[in-house]
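Write out this protein's structure.
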Amino acid sequence: MIKCNTKNIWLSINEAASYLRYSTRHLRRLISQNKIKYQKLPTGGIRLHRSDLDAFIIFGTSFNKLTRPQKEIIYDTRD
């Protein structure tokens, strides 16, 4: 299992899979279905923002689609 440095806000596929406790295959499937927002790097790599992963875990949607009270819940869970 890959150790995830949760202080880093941008996670690689392997780190995000470890953070979510999903397989990398399942995480890639969620990305291809546009259920989790991601950023593609110029080198071809993929990075996922920890806020988007937290929003997906708690609410089942991306961070940008959350209301202000929902975003505050995610910020409170980081403390």
